[in-house]
């Protein structure tokens, strides 16, 4: 029997969401399922705002950043009445399977909806933060690292020319995956991450110790500190001011911001998005529901949605120890 599949993108958009939509649509077409896309995240479900999708609608899409279905944060959807309305809308359209591409917040939304809707619910991890437990990587994460690295490389050029200290703030909400990997890949000198943060005093002391030793050995050289957002209590400008006083040289803050969410997805994200999208469609019609499909060691995995947020995903130990020996503890 043919099936009706719906897909939506929710929460922070991530490069590769379009590639994932494309894979879902093509796999559905191949299986003879009809497919529709809800617009603007959960808002589309609430307001029955959708469009029918087919191979033509996803032509030339794989390389495009953003999401053709748009995304949103939809506070309203947290209400019971709203979730019931969304369930009624899904029933009215006779949707069998809803695929949600988003972060852990969107997966909470999926579980909330499952209290009122009996259809099949599948989640696919899409966020630049990579903060979803149960999958090695998330769609968008590799592109965001690349964007941050390219930007930090540029900061390095001017930092070198002026032998200046720069403080670069990267995204990640409350997770350090992006910061850690962007800092290591751009050969930054110090990185401040939520998972390793002890206190303001300890951080300032560690930076000063490292900088003093380095200045003694190598004279005035450029110095780049990468800071994860939402971490320094009074913000990046306050840290820059404190460091300016301590180092007696002007410390320039740079906030990379939403530029990290944009751009054409790198091939790792396109491939991950394509594999996960096609795999999700292969589960349509089975009794598997309420799970996220992720990837561990190159193989697809099915993770109950609550497990994606109940435990904090740890940073990779090997990467952390490499960072410590080459960056934060290099002069210790
Ligand atoms: N506890 C919840 N109950 C219902 N819906 C939720 C819940 N948490 C998040 N959502 C929905 O998921 C959306 C996306 O969540 P958010 O945390 O902003 O992004 P992400 O999915 O990228 O983590 C929210 O705007 C809201 O519509
Ligand atoms: O775009 P907004 O709403 O300002 O949100 C910013 C947040 O979104 C992100 O870019 C992505 O986070 P999510 O994927 O979890 O939504 C975070 O890194 C950042 O903290």
Automatic annotation (TrEMBL):
Lineage of origin: Bacteria, Pseudomonadati, Pseudomonadota, Gammaproteobacteria, Alteromonadales
GO cellular component terms listed in the entry, alphabetical order: 6-phosphofructokinase complex
Pathway the protein acts in: Carbohydrate degradation; glycolysis; D-glyceraldehyde 3-phosphate and glycerone phosphate from D-glucose: step 3/4
EC number assigned by the record: 2.7.1.11
Protein name, UniProt field: 6-phosphofructokinase
Compartments where found: Cytoplasm
Classification via InterPro entries: ATP_PFK (IPR022953), ATP_PFK_prok-type (IPR012003), Phosphofructokinase_CS (IPR015912), Phosphofructokinase_dom (IPR000023), PKF_sf (IPR035966)
Chief location of this protein within or outside the cell: cytoplasm
Classification via PANTHER family: ATP-DEPENDENT 6-PHOSPHOFRUCTOKINASE, PHOSPHOFRUCTOKINASE
Annotated keywords: Allosteric enzyme, ATP-binding, Cytoplasm, Glycolysis, Kinase, Magnesium, Metal-binding, Nucleotide-binding, Transferase
Top-level taxon in the UniProt lineage: Bacteria
Family: Belongs to the phosphofructokinase type A (PFKA) family.
